[in-house]
Amino acid sequence: MTDTTDLLVIGAGPGGYACAFRAADLGLSVTLVDARDRLGGVCLNEGCIPSKALLHAAEIIREAQHMADWGITFGKPKLDLDALRAKKDEIVGHLTGGLTGLAGRRKVTTLQGKATLTGPNSAEIEGTQIRFDKAVIAVGSAPVQLPGWPEDDRIWDSTSALELRDVPKTLAIVGGGIIGLEMATVYCALGAEVTVVELADQIAPGADPQAVAILRDAQEAEGITIHTGTQVTEVTTTKATVTLTCTGAFEGQIKAKAVIQSVGRRANGDKVGAEAAGLSVSDRGVIEADATGATDVPSIFAIGDVTGNPMLAHRATHQGHIAAEVIAGHRAALETTLIPSVAYTSPELAWVGLTEAQAKAEGRNVKATSFPWAASGRNLASGGRDGLTKLVYDPATNRLLGASIVGRNAGELLAEVTLAIEMGARLDDIGLTIHAHPTLSETIAFAAERALGTLTDL
Amino acid sequence: MSDTIASPSTRRLAREQGVDIDALARKLGRTTISAEDISGSARPAASAGDTSYWDVDHSQYGPVTKEPMSRFAQVASKNLAAAQALIPAVTHHERADVSAIEALRKSWKAEAQARGVKLTALAFHVAALSRALRAFPRFNASLTPDGEDLVLKDYVHIGIAVDTPHGLMVPVIRDADRKGLWQIGAEIADLAGRAQARKVRQDEMGGASMTITNLGGIGGTAFTPIVNPPEVAILGITRTETVTHWDGDTPRPVPMVPLDLSYDHRVINGADAARFMTHYAGLIADPRNMLV
Ligand SMILES: Cc1cc2nc3c(=O)[nH]c(=O)nc-3n(C[C@H](O)[C@H](O)[C@H](O)COP(=O)(O)OP(=O)(O)OC[C@H]3O[C@@H](n4cnc5c(N)ncnc54)[C@H](O)[C@@H]3O)c2cc1C
């Protein structure tokens, strides 16, 4: 039996379902297939959402501890891991179930099974042939497994870490990018003694060093040990521990009850039969796509993590919408290069657009201005600790080009600057826009005013 | 990041309309592009001003049918509207005695038959105009679009507006000032014939010094043709009429052809136009003047 569809979307993550739903809204007949039994992909099932649920729990534990300074003391928190896991799963279930409802309302056909392309207009899903006019590959990415590591139940990736099997007394995290730092934040609050090992000479590589330094200080103050510029050369296991041998800035051994590998994610392009359709896949699993999602094969588009970095859910979603519109005959393309990054650590670290280092690498003349959160009334009055709002701008025009924010709710604050950059705002526009007092958002206006010489709060 | 400032919705609009936002910014000499700039750049030059009141449901007044304008007609209408809106044009009226031309055509009838060439009055006009353009070089010129330079041409090509079932076409007789009447006559017949069948090649159109639009075979006493840019003038001809000419006290019937010269006032002023047409009428009235 052969089924036919206008559009086959392979992978139901934030890229795939957004694409399928938009295409259905534009009148196409759409089939959405995923190997897992729930929609939502990595993001909903083992990424963005479960990690944020656990981070919320971690934040409450930390806040409760810090309230001792305010004369309010709670007892040591009692952890019911089963209940916490159930709560997290309930949230995930609620959201993925919601997606199933949204798919049904749009008459998107959903199939469960592994899809393999068999040609430029055909695929096979668990023995069933399906013919399509167009297909969108949205198969996402998977955690990188470092070569030479032993097989061991105590060596986790982000997926197993989010399963919350237990809270090990000591936990080593290899890879200090966003995912590793979020895991450190969770497990530290739950009571593990956490050590982070990062090869680059700063955690959150790519982010503004001044902002990252504030995050690092905060994490170390919570008891997390951080080794940057350090490489793990050997991993050995005994009955009692996993031992990491390190060289670089830190020379020596780290013994831990469990280890999380978070050294990046590899695109899944080589797991979908892309070659049979005439596509080439890079040795990093990436399928190249242009700003419309088009690949080298006219009937096939690719979006999301499978198209490479930055591997972020909101990028996948926007690419999905664009591809759907292009397939439905509209003129569309991802016009912007502004893709915000947020680490939901404590405090949060968020950045978008140009950093000073990037500008320097591009030979572009920029200036930076900042406002320290130690001078923010709202931050102090709500128990916030150190933080920074930093804006990068063009000194010739005062046009805003980038921003880095570290502090509580930095991820939410980032939206204002992202919109401001998209709209071509100058520092003057931001300074002249009235920000409510006292809010954390004021720090953005203050940073702008500081550069303009109109600031009276510092 | 692009140096052009434009909001995301403006960028989307530009893409939908096929407008290159950075090129538009350079053209307008701007750093910021707004949605209005995009719709403006895609709008044809024709619809300047508010035309919403033209949008009438005619069927409420009686039965109507609708026929689509061809691509060809749509392009022509855009160009005509732009020419009419952007060129300050004046039309100068003149008439010329065609007795001598008519006499010549009669006396050459036998030879015409032998050559197989129909020697029309239009052939004489093409010959006369090409000679007149040599005498008045500013009429054989084009203004650059920015209005900063006048390009003077050291060649004389005459465009002939031909009425065809699919619209107006303007094939061109090259180097008409170096061609004799028989050759001009033969070329007119050939080009006009092929224009009817839409068989004129692209390289046989364009590049004219001036265009002649001749309604003489149909009728009319005068009209005001629209200049065909980048040319700076156009010569209209209507039907020859026998008028009463007074030699002192004696009336004499004289066949006169009405001539209408529309010209771009930015390049040609009224006195020049009057001199040009006096000269031209002289060439028609006494074709021997074309030889000197
Ligand atoms: C722990 C963690 C936290 C994260 N936190 C954030 C965050 O806070 N913010 C953020 O923006 N991003 C976050 N990410 C990244 C985010 O999850 C991804 O960028 C996003 O899920 C990518 O979406 P996608 O649509 O490309 O593919 P995915 O979400 O990876 O979905 C791909 C789907 O394709 C399916 N699939 C694969 N191959 C096949 C096949 N052959 N046939 C059928 N189905 C197939 C898979 O089962 C999967 O469901 C996080 C990731 C992790 C691991």
UniProtKB/TrEMBL annotation, chain A:
Catalytic residues identified in the record: H437
Cofactor binding note from Swiss-Prot or TrEMBL: Binds 1 FAD per subunit.
Residue positions binding NAD(+): G175, G176, G177, I178, I179, G180, L181, E182, E198, G264, D305
EC number: 1.8.1.4
SUPFAM superfamilies reported in the protein's UniProt record: FAD/NAD(P)-binding domain (SSF51905), FAD/NAD-linked reductases, dimerisation (C-terminal) domain (SSF55424)
GO BP annotations, alphabetical order: 2-oxoglutarate metabolic process
Cysteine-cysteine disulfides: C43-C48
UniProt GO MF annotations: dihydrolipoyl dehydrogenase (NADH) activity; flavin adenine dinucleotide binding
Organism domain of life: Bacteria
Binding site for FAD: K52, M311, L312, A313, H314
Alphabetical UniProt keywords: Disulfide bond, FAD, Flavoprotein, NAD, Nucleotide-binding, Oxidoreductase, Redox-active center
Cofactor: FAD
Record field: catalytic activity: N(6)-[(R)-dihydrolipoyl]-L-lysyl-[protein] + NAD(+) = N(6)-[(R)-lipoyl]-L-lysyl-[protein] + NADH + H(+)
Limits of the FAD/NAD(P)-binding domain: 6-320
Domain Pyridine nucleotide-disulphide oxidoreductase dimerisation, chain residue ranges per copy: 339-445
Family designation: Belongs to the class-I pyridine nucleotide-disulfide oxidoreductase family.
Note: The active site is a redox-active disulfide bond.
Name assigned to this protein: Dihydrolipoyl dehydrogenase
